[in-house]
Write a structure and sequence with these properties.
The protein is an alpha/beta fold and 296 residues long. 33% of the residues lie in helices and 22% in strands. Bound molecules: flavin mononucleotide. Flavin mononucleotide (FMN) binds next to β6.
Length: 296
């Protein structure tokens, strides 16, 4: 299946990749073995978010299905940078597609350590910065503050010649202002949208008859079909405003949804939540895009 796309100097077989944290390639390979490599659903693989230190994530329940969407409060469980490099990277580097490593720090200094470490590894084709996190020093969400985004890029851009993708948060006053701050700071590409802040309340009575907060103390991130129209609006606005390529995502389930994001200006489209329902969705959409192109 060839529908080649040039992205950050990488020659991708087609424009569909995975959204970070929604496809576990190591677990899939343990189940499907070499079969997975022959039919890998994505044109590049994006790792789940890696933090400096290992994190267990939030206690279950972590997922709540809403009307047309999913609220997650996973809490970014991951093995931490050292174990990712020594244990996961050797496995991920044998996938048949380029590897993008997604990292998140809770301070700019942590991002510096993460980017410096990734920069040294040839197996990593590009680095994605997940900025949907509070800066523990300022208490402000890093990705929703253009000033902090500029400071982050100023700190990490000189550390690596690898392509840097900044994954923007939709939970901000003006995503275009944040996108411009990241691009002006030297980001090679922008990806959006991450999940929208949302709340899930358990349909049960707790305490003295009150319905209490449920997931992650009440808030989590909404994804899936429910966010598709928001994603399209934000991707279109950002793609119009910056000169760097955009990875569009949010609620993609079919080729028509991917086509909308491409028409809105995205170079590449990522699929997240739909992979839980159909792990082969990436290949299905790529095939459908190719078929619709050849029938035009
Ligand atoms: C269960 C789950 C886990 C996720 N984990 C991460 C993550 O580790 N890092 C990240 O940057 N985004 C993460 N995301 C966000 C997705 O990559 C994507 O930006 C978002 O879900 C929108 O796409 P979708 O509607 O196709 O899922 C996660 C989303 C879900 C549903």
């Amino acid at each position: 299946m060839r529908h080649p796309v040039s992205f950050l100097g990488l020659e991708l077989a087609h424009p569909i990749i995975n959204g970070s944290g929604t496809f576990d390639a190591i677990a899939a390979r343990a189940v499907f073995g070499a079969e997975l490599d022959c039919a890998f659903p994505f044109a590049a693989f994006v790792s789940k978010t890696i933090t400096l230190r290992a994190q267990d994530g939030n206690p279950p329940p972590r997922l709540w299905e809403t009307a047309s969407g999913l609220v997650n409060s996973i809490g970014l469980p991951n093995p931490g940078l050292d174990a990712y490099m020594s244990r996961d990277l050797p496995q991920l580097s044998t996938l048949p597609v380029p590897l993008i490593t997604n990292v998140m720090g809770s301070t700019i200094e942590e991002f510096v350590d993460l980017v410096a470490a990734c920069s040294e590894r040839d197996e990593i084709a590009a680095i994605e910065l997940n900025v949907s996190c509070p800066n523990v020093k300022t208490g402000l969400d890093l990705g929703s503050d253009p000033v902090q985004l500029g400071q982050l890029l100023a700190a990490v851009r000189p550390l690596t010649g690898k392509p840097l993708i900044v994954k923007l948060t939709p939970n901000c006053a003006d995503v275009v202002v944040c996108a411009k701050a990241a691009a002006d700071g030297g980001a090679d590409a922008l990806s959006l949208i991450n999940t929208l802040r949302a709340m899930a309340l358990a349909p049960r009575v707790v305490g003295a008859g009150r319905v209490g907060p449920w997931l992650g103390g009440g808030t989590g991130g909404l994804s899936g079909a429910a966010v598709r129209a928001v994603a399209l609006a934000q991707v279109a606005a950002v793609a119009r405003s910056v000169d760097v390529p955009v990875v569009g995502m949010g609620g993609v389930q079919r080729a028509a949804h991917a086509r909308d994001l491409l028409d809105a200006g995205a170079t590449v489209v990522a699929v997240g939540t739909e992979s839980f329902r159909d792990p082969a969705v990436g290949a299905r959409i790529a095939q459908e895009l190719l078929a619709s192109r050849s029938s035009v």
